[in-house]
Amino acid sequence: MVSNTLDMELDDLVATLKRVRETSGDEPEYRELRAPLPDGWPI
Questions:
Q1: Using CA atoms, how far apart are residues 31 and 43, in angstroms rounded to an integer?
Q2: Cα(1)–Cα(31) distance, rounded to whole angstroms?
Q3: Which residue, of 13, 17, 23, 38, has the fewest CB within 10 Å?
Q4: Which residues, 6 or more positions from 28, have their beta carbon under 8 angstroms from its beta carbon?
Q5: Contact between residue 24 and residue 30 where contact means Cβ atoms under 8 Å apart
Q6: 41, 14 Cβ separation under 8 angstroms
Q7: Residue 41: which region, alpha, beta or left (left: phi > 0; alpha: psi -120 to 50)?
Q8: What does DSSP assign to residue 16?
C-alpha cells in the first residue's frame, strides 16, 4: 500500500492527494497523469 511505503497514515495520504488536486488540478500534467485512474480514486 502506498501509505505504508511512504510511512504515512492512510488519512494523511488521502489529505495530501486532495491538496495536490486543489493546487494542481487545472494543470495539463496533472490531468494527463490523473486520466487513467478511476473516478472514485481519492485524487
A1: 10
A2: 23
A3: 38
A4: none
A5: yes
A6: no
A7: beta
A8: H
Answer for the pair 17, 40: CB distance below 8 angstroms, yes or no. no
Among 7, 4, 29, 5, which Cα is nearest to 21's?
A: 29
DSSP state of 6: T
Sequence length of the chain is 43
SS3 content of the chain, % helix, strand, coil (to 5): 60, 0, 40
Instruction: Please report, for the chain, the start and end positions of each structural domain, with discontinuous segments joined by +.
Output: 2-34
* DSSP, residue by residue, 1-43: -HHHHTT--HHHHHHHHHHHHHHHTTSHHHHHHHTTS-TTS--
pTM (two decimals): 0.68
